[in-house]
Amino acid sequence: MQFNFKNPTQIIFGAGMLAQLGEVAGRYGKHALVVTGGGSVKRNGTFDRAIESLKAAGVSVTECSGVEPNPRLSTVVRGAQIAKDENCDVVIAIGGGSTMDAAKAMAAMVYYEDEPWNMFFSSEGTFVPPTRALPVITVPTLAATGSEMNSGAVITNEETKEKSFVNVPILFPKAAIVDPELTVTVPADQTAYGVCDLITHVTEGYFNGVDGTPLQDRWAEGVIQTAMEWGPKAVADGNDLEARTQVQWASVAALNGWVQIGTKAGYPVHMIEHTLSAHHDVAHAAGLAVVNPSWMRFAAKQRPERFAQFAERVFGVQRNGGGAEEAAREGIDRFEEFLRSIGCPTHLSELGIGEELIERYADDTLRIINDGNGNLPGRPTMTKDDIVNVLRAAL
Ligand code: NZQ
Ligand code: ZN
Known about the structure:
Elements: E1 10-13, H1 21-26, E2 31-35, H2 40-43, H3 46-56, E3 60-64, H4 73-85, E4 90-95, H5 97-109, E5 136-140, E6 152-157, E7 162-167, E8 175-178, H6 188-208, H7 214-236, H8 241-254, H9 268-280, H10 284-300, H11 304-315, H12 324-341, H13 358-368, H14 384-393
Parallel strand pairs: 1-8, 2-3, 2-4, 4-5, 5-8
Antiparallel strand pairs: 6-7
Helix pairs in contact: 4-5, 6-7, 6-8, 6-10, 7-8, 9-10, 9-13, 10-12, 10-14, 11-12, 13-14
The site of 5,6-dihydroxy-NADP has 35 residues, from helix 2, helix 5, strand 6, helix 6 and helix 10.
């Protein structure tokens, strides 16, 4: 186990913390580009409260609204142009992962001189990482992606129907104001998808990482169990602030890097899902709920002991004389049942996706990222046929 870890994002956590936005943002700039999504923050009053706090701290505001779910490259370019035209010196994202990702990419696009799509990873050698960005403050309104406290952004090229990512240290937000009160208006389906997303961030590291990371294993299991305990409560009653609080903390912890330290894991389930949402504009974690159990059944054949450990520790599955394969299968079945119980889809048909483009999804996934031998990084690595088979099994 070897690692070199730094997460510089300040996190200010708790109900009511939105009131600190102005004071925090004022440390980084005097004229903010405030980035929002399709309008939820205006309808529920979050936007007005944020602006009030900024004005009180002497921070003036230019708005960039209308970031769509699965945010598009053209939106990033539009926002960066506004920031340049208006001389903004700090970017504030108020919204879900899509809004935060778009805001982070805008902050870097302001200085980017290459073709905009080259800012995002590709195995074809076109990737030119950004080297400078305006300071970013995140105010998540949906517990899911962990984007508020990590250095990643996932963007869709709507012309080529590709979805890719950039993950570089300059994109770490300066501060994340994580106020669970802002999430009480998230509808039940998006709440459930958020729970699935955060759990999947953790399972990617848990199942694809190197051997010999016992502490990371326990952290991962703790995040999953916390999400499974409090997630259903947040889905059942959106106003349950305690449940919203625990779920949101779990979502931050799931992808701020801590759980994955030293695991050197790939993200095969995410990479496959990104291709689905690029083509069909489905909610990211609705796609994950379909792909992850199917991928687990594929990967468990190579590593049954690992999946048996997951079954035993997370679901209390007893071996009772059966082998690791049997325990592994039961753990995956129970995981899938959990996803269904909170309202997630587990078949492609539920997303309106058939088999017509199944080979294309595999090709696109491998074009965004492969290990140099044409396979998808993960444990095990996946050939094109493996990806097709995992998707076919999820039809
Ligand atoms: O657009 P608005 O009107 O704000 O509505 C949104 C949107 O319709 C709504 N919503 C958000 N907060 C709300 C709310 N509705 C009511 N009350 C609130 N408080 O929820 C809908 C979904 O929002 P979105 O931001 O798209 O969801 P999510 O947070 O799940 O983000 C998904 C995006 O993040 C990427 C995904 O690929 C996808 O594009 N990811 C980013 C990651 C990262 N940066 O680390 C990692 C993830 O694995 C993921 O890939
Ligand atoms: Zn995710």
